[in-house]
Specification:
about 180 residues, mainly alpha, 9 helices, about 85% helix, elongated
Length: about 180
């Protein structure tokens, strides 16, 4: 409402994009898509490439959810191009994780694995446990599809350990917040 009332297109676009995320999380992909494309149109008109990249990633995730992996790759590659041009490391990691997952699911696990291996050091550099966890999962799945059982086991173990550590960390943070 605030964006609509004030005529602030950028705020309106961010609200639409956030509504798209909320509806995606609720499993309402049609509504999610509608709001995300509204945001995309606004950010394209404004020339706001950072938020445009966010929309591209979100559309890619929606397409992934619908098992439209080739189309998901296309949108994530659009986002990646922007992230690379702006040097947005977090965006680069997210886009490449999404692309690598799709490639693995499309029967191209070598390509997916190469991309996961490429971005793992970048995620480790930023100590982003959530993204490292997702990369380990992707590497496990890629190695599994390649019938490399030893590496599949190795990365599955790393994934589970990190998943548990991230979960425990979240629980501790929630407890500390509740006590304050």
């Amino acid at each position: 409402e605030i964006g609509e009332q004030t005529g602030d297109s950028s705020t309106l676009g961010r609200c639409y994009n956030n509504l798209g995320i909320v509806y995606k999380n609720l499993g309402q992909t049609d509504k999610a898509s509608d709001y995300t494309f509204k945001a995309l149109k606004i950010f394209a008109a404004l020339g706001d490439s950072a938020n445009l990249a966010s929309c591209y990633n979100n559309i890619g995730v929606l397409l992934y959810t619908d098992k439209l992996y080739e189309s998901s790759i296309e949108y994530n590659e659009k986002a990646l191009k922007i992230h690379l041009s702006k040097g947005i490391k977090n965006g680069i990691i997210i886009s490449k994780i999404n692309i690598a997952e799709c490639k693995t699911l499309l029967g191209k696990p070598k390509e997916g694995l190469a991309m996961f291996q490429e971005i793992l050091p970048l995620a480790m550099e930023g100590n982003d446990k959530w993204k490292i966890r997702d990369i380990y999962l992707g590497m496990y799945q890629s190695y599994e599809k390649l019938n490399d059982i030893n590496n599949a086991f190795k990365y599955h173990k790393l994934y589970v350990e990190l998943k548990d550590a991230v979960f425990d960390s979240d629980i501790n943070e929630q407890q500390q917040e509740a006590e304050n």
